[in-house]
Amino acid sequence: MDLAVDITSSCRVRVLLVPVSPIKKSSFWRHVELVRKFNTVRLGDVTPDLHKGANAKFSSQVFQEGQMHFQFVTKYNRDHSHLEDFQPHRRIFGVIGIMDCQEWKDKDLSEGYKEFVDMLVQYPTAVATRCFAFDPTENQPDDTKGLIMIPNVGNMSFYMSTMICDFASEILDQFATIAGRIENLKGLESPIPLGAFPRRYEVPNNVVIPQPSTSSPNIKTQQQANNRASQPVPTPSVSSSFLKRASSAAGSSRPTTIASPPSPRPSLSRSTTFSNLVHGGEGNKTIQRTPGRIKKLLADFYLLAGRLPDAIQFYNEAIDMTKSHSDYLWLASAKEGLACTMLLMSFLQVDVGHIISRNTAPNDSAAITSTHTSKPPPNSDKIGLDNQKSILSEITEMYEDVVQTYAKVGTTTNIPMPSLVFAEACLKLSRFLVLVFLNNGWNDTVLAKVVHADMGDLSQRKEKFLTMSDLVKCKDSGITRYSIAKYVTKVWTVDVDELSMMDQINIMTHMSSLLSVIGYHRKSAWFMYEMLNRMIPLLIQGRAAVASSLNKSNVHDGGALKILQDKFDETYQKQQGNAAKKTNTLGFGWPALQIDILRECIVISEAIQDHASMLYYTTVLLKNLYQYISKDEQIRLASSIQRIVNISKRSGQSENNVNYWGFNIVRSIEPIHPIPRKAIYQHPLLIAKALAASKEGRLNSGDPFIYNPFAKKKNDKPQINLIKDEVCEFKVSLSNPFGFDLELSNIILSTSGVEFSPVPAAATIPANDTLTIRLMGTPLETGALTIRGCIIKITGFAEQEFLNEKQKTEQVKEKENKVMSLVESKRHKYSGLQALYKAPTLDLDMRHDNAQESQYEQINVIEDQPLLKIKSSSLLHGAVMLFEGEMTRIHIQIENIGHIPVDFITLSFTDSTTNHPKLINPDLPPEEQYEIELYTKGTPVFSWEGSKADNNQIGKRISLGPKESTDIVVNIYGKQGCTGGAVYIDYGYLDRAIKGQEQESEQSNELPTTLYTRQLYFPVMITVYQHLEPLNWDVLYLRDNMTISKEAVDKAFEAVSKTKDQQGNSSDQRVEDLLLITQRSSDDNDKNPYCLLTLDVRNTWTVPYEVEFMIDNTETASENEILKYQVTIQPALTKRIVLPLKKLFLTSEQRLQPIPSFEPNKQFVVSQGPKMAPEQERAKLQMFWYRELLLDRVKSSWRCKTTGREGIIDLRSSLRLTPVQLNILKKQDIEFIVSMSDNQYTTGHRQFECPVNNFVAMNVTILNRQD
After folding, report:
1. For domain 662-696+719-821+855-864, which architecture applies?
2. Where does the record place the Trs120/TRAPPC9 TPR region domain (predicted)?
């Protein structure tokens, strides 16, 4: 029977709920839960006794705000029957039968009621009985006397409440009968434990005989004959029927029936005349102590009846009387009842208000009215709070006195103290203090939990280690853990071995649970170990007896081995959660002790021939503690597993094969990237939308940095997509921590989702080693493929699925990182069990892992893709030699070797200058950074027809069916410093993606589908030679002091034009002709707008080259003044080039523009150097933009007549302007032009002849070119 370990157990009236078969288990428990909802009945709602009224001994109207607390139980045994007269709350006062009318559709309900009546003989202490028939049908008649139909219609709660109130009224009526008999007792002895010492008991005439209720079939009274007048229906006639039964029960004319239990047991009522009790003065003492004991019993019944003021009065009288006679056992029990009564009074005072103390006079209770609420409202009154704290201290002190009083029982009597009562008192106080401790002190909520026996806090924290934050919170309760543990361990001061084995097990279970809740885990483990030691002998004897009687070698009864198994499952589940951290870490605990306990379990299992348990503990020992076991013992345990399996096979208790017994040998499963030729790349179809979405996301992020090293790193791991009907590979890592080899005869991938065809493999994992293998398979459908793990068959065992633990390991690593950050901030070390809850590992609570479902890696399987190969190319050995500035073409032939057509192709390129660009120092001047970026990104090496500047379309549409070929032309430019590059050919099936996009766009407005492409790689080795080198740039003034006729200018222009037409000749062009052409200028303001450019060109090669310079002197759109100058440079020679160039002019807006950049996402970096003056900054910008304009006006190309090669000359690298040259090159902002009014004096450009000593008119023109 369950122990009475709640501090308010004394106020609960036990009522047994029994099923009346046939009834389903689920239906029975559903109705049980319905009845248990009405476990508290307010006395004001109980049907009063109309005959006696308030004069009834246990009238419900005297203290209407009182409550009767029922404890509805579903099981009961007679183990504690010797204590029922000492503590009435242990007795079964009522029996309620539960019938399900749905199971009696074709049967007579009276038969079920008769079956219920026959069961009542087993419960002779029941004074009130009911039989409830739930869910009746319309066809079932309500004509069975004593059977109460509970229809599932209307206000069922009100109906059930009325039935329970009538049931409580009958119990109160029977309490009066029992109390009257108790008052007439001449002697009342203390309870004697079974087997304490032999004694013969006689049942006298005044023994308390339990009276059956009107529902008993053995009672034929007038009340039962009045056409169901005695049935508890919600009518006014109910109370009168109870009054009749109560009055007849008290009289002598009513027949009585004594029901004896099926086996001989001590009398249910220990009340006796003591005629045959022990000899000597013990009998006289008992007679003297009887009045105090009677007062105590009456107080117990008043407490059960909810009459709290009367209970307090009788308890105080009993305490005084028992204390005067040194009756310590009954004195301590009276104090327990008084403590329970005080708690209930405190609860009612909080609930109802101040309750005035009164005598038992019924007139005083008429003025008291109340309204019942299930939970008390919060009380903010300071006086009430102080009163509550005083109640806590008073209850604690009272129970401390109770424990000390129980310890004195043996000093004044020969009858031994019941050890169970002392143990329950210690547990009551401990559970009470623990509840206050966990709820941070005494308050109204704690009081409500104590009254309603709500111990959910204990069950919730049963297996949880107290953390530092929990200890800080519980510190405010004022209860120390030491004081709780002191009263828990006081149970051990009595001889626990005298109790029955089930009581010992229950007591130690409660002790272990309480110690674990307050963080005393070592003591808790010790009591758990003691509990298991007491269970094992019972288990071996019971299971061996059952096995021999049934002639079976394996019988499961859910005994101690089940508890051991649950305990070890719970312990090692945490260790398996930590196994991903380190393979050599067991966790907390003593491995040697754990090994010994597991060995004991194996021996016990072998003794009772429980092969399943023996196999379980052997596998647990080998799986979790292999690190602490020698290699020889590991091999022996592995062999014993096979032996146990073979024995089980012969006995027919096991399957042909068993699963592998070790831990998960699959450490990780990773998909392997395919070879570059078969790799898949994902591209959005509408790049504009994708770029806009990316840009918007970047702007909304609020981060001003393009690259922020402190930002959270994104997982840029490329996504792997599998292709339908193509073989894919996975890298599987297998681990063997044991001291012997594991032979795997069959290994395949375990998948779910789309259909997958795995390829089996075999391997052997060496001892204490890790093996990495490749597993292959082919997806047969498109969709999501889930990689669960591997299905492995170990030689000698059944095929078993091993799940992939990679994700779990990653979660543990993330938690480890959080813990390490806490460790760095709080470097405190603790030893022992304190490290479990004081170390900064709060985030590593594994309770979240149990709540989360296992998630496996999912891989997308796409449609089958086309496949190309490079069939041939125009390059020999993949290499090309170029001169600087030369442009050549190569041809690449590709072939479709797949069965999917190709309709889209695009090319991308890389070269050595872009793969490894020059590092740009942010402190460099902007013009130098521009030159580096122009060289790196502004001068491409490769180009093709799909990469034109005026073409916004990416790629090219082609039609390449299976087994067809096509050519691709790629241009290669000879870039100085380039040593090689590569051509990437991306191809795909665009039409299929567009059709899929159209279908999706009709269904949703999401981003379009993606295009999957594959890529071909064609490397090119490039060698670039510098053959022509420009150097020594200079800018000179061009002054014309002579007058040249128009005929000479036209002749020079004709000579230059003739040289253009005769480009095949190697004759050099005359510089004089170019200078004469400059005289054709029509500038009226300035007759000489030209300047001279000079530079040297050196031929460093072995063949001559023809070099052509083109000077663009066009200033307006209507002009077309382009001059060309050709010269042939022989090998190893240098020639001076003189070029006439019109002076340049830029507006202030043009020459003060910021220097551009080829990197649009270039990060702005504040310069560390000194800030430049505004004048210097404007001068540098002016120098930069005039240099750019000069390079735009002057172009140069070369041609080799012998080889036919041609290209351009890079003039940029050799051109460096100085401020002096810039002044010559540009037109001045303000210019003075001097002329004579009479043209007869003009002899040349700014040259005049005039007579001496004569006045002449001179005109000075001021030209302002500024904005």
Report:
1. Sandwich (2.60)
2. 393-651
